[in-house]
Amino acid sequence: MRHIVLWWAVSAGVAAAQQPLTLGQAVEAALTRYPAVRVSQERAAAAAAAINLARTAYLPRTDFLGQLNRATHNNIFGMLMPQAVIAPISGPVLRTNSLASVWGTAVGVLASWEPFDFGLRRAQVGVAEAGRDRAGAQIAVTRLEVATAAADGFLTLLAAEQQVTAARAGVERARVTHEVVASLAKNELRPGADESRARAELALAQTQLIRAGQAVEEARAALSPLVGVPPEAIEIAPGPLLSPLPEQAPAPPAAAQHPLAMAQNAAFLEAKARENALKRAYFPRFNLQATAFARGTGVQPDGVTGNAASGLGPNIQNWGVGMSVTFPAFDLPGIRARQAAAAADERAEQARYRQVVEDLGGEAAKARAALAGARRVAANTPVQLAAARDAERQAAARYQAGLATIVELAEAQRLLTGAEIDDALARLGIWRAALAVAAAEGDLTPYLRLTK
């Protein structure tokens, strides 16, 4: 049954993938399926978990110990500097040196808690929270980038398909012309050179169609990983994209509200939080401690050892409660150096934020200028197309009347094909320029609403 359900789900997914995609659906599919969005989300989840980790510093720490050993019991007077090689030993110093061994046991528990810390733990939690905010802001940046890439890929594919349509019309005109010229040349009403030129123009138009088809396949391949659909299964629905974009001039949002600017501001606040935590690093650390332990040994204070099982169980108990204070007296130079580095990082992130805001403002202005230019071009291409059609009809009529050469007719047909391509791409150029404006302003929602 599970395999049947899985097969049905896969079949339904393939059937849905074969339906023509609108631009909005392509963007939504990219935001849902493209791994880069998931990467940003998981990084944000990891940053949120780091907050919980930082908050555990408020909890008391409790350590349990259990130990069993068999060792010699020779002890000597004298100081031993702290090290990690020679194991410590307790008990009286005996006047013997024996390699006989006895059992030793120990069990214990130590609980410690820092009742106050001069704001250090809160500052460390603040660093973790700033990291979470930065990761969350990066999600919005990634989503904007992925959505923009998907929309741009959709428009690129649609533009390539429009070029195929125009190139196919050009091939058809060249084919009809070649048939007419070939018939005239066969009847010796036109020279054979005209038929050769017409055949060359037909081959040129077919080459242009092949290249346009190649561009379509390349655009499908580029869009495929974004929407999660195999290239051969991608079909798109133009919707209103082949019509002029309605005129509108909404007030542009402030550059500071752009996801990229907000992410950079979050990076600045994170650097500031790190500096704030370092300011609280040079304070005493107070720890309230409580311990209880028991030890057992197979040797008595006078050096007498017990039976073979002596010392296997702890038999001497102790407990204690106290407060310990530690102060890193000579850490001040190092802490100051780290504070200086953190302050420099903070200033760098702040300067980078100002740069991002200025760059975004410049990009938005540039995109709006490109949109205005695209509208002017789109207003002019219908005139160009109409003139090219008239010129092609006139050139065809003049050629049939023997008043024009095949070169003039071929030039007029190429001019018409180019005008058809320019007219189709001019309307899409407005939509592409509007996409650039929306991306520069940091919000594709109003743009996507227009594509429905």
Written account of the structure:
This protein is of the alpha+beta class and 452 residues long. The chain folds into 2 domains: 20-59 and 118-282 and 333-450, Outer membrane efflux proteins (OEP), CATH 1.20.1600.10; 65-80 and 87-112 and 289-327, no CATH class. 63% of the residues lie in helices and 11% in strands. The chain is built from 9 helices and 4 strands; from the N terminus they run αααββαααββααα. A 4-stranded antiparallel beta sheet has the order 1-2-3-4, with no helix packed on it. Helix 2 (23-33) packs across helix 4 and helix 7 packs antiparallel against helix 8 (406-441).
Brief summary of the model shown:
The chain is of the alpha+beta class and 452 residues long.
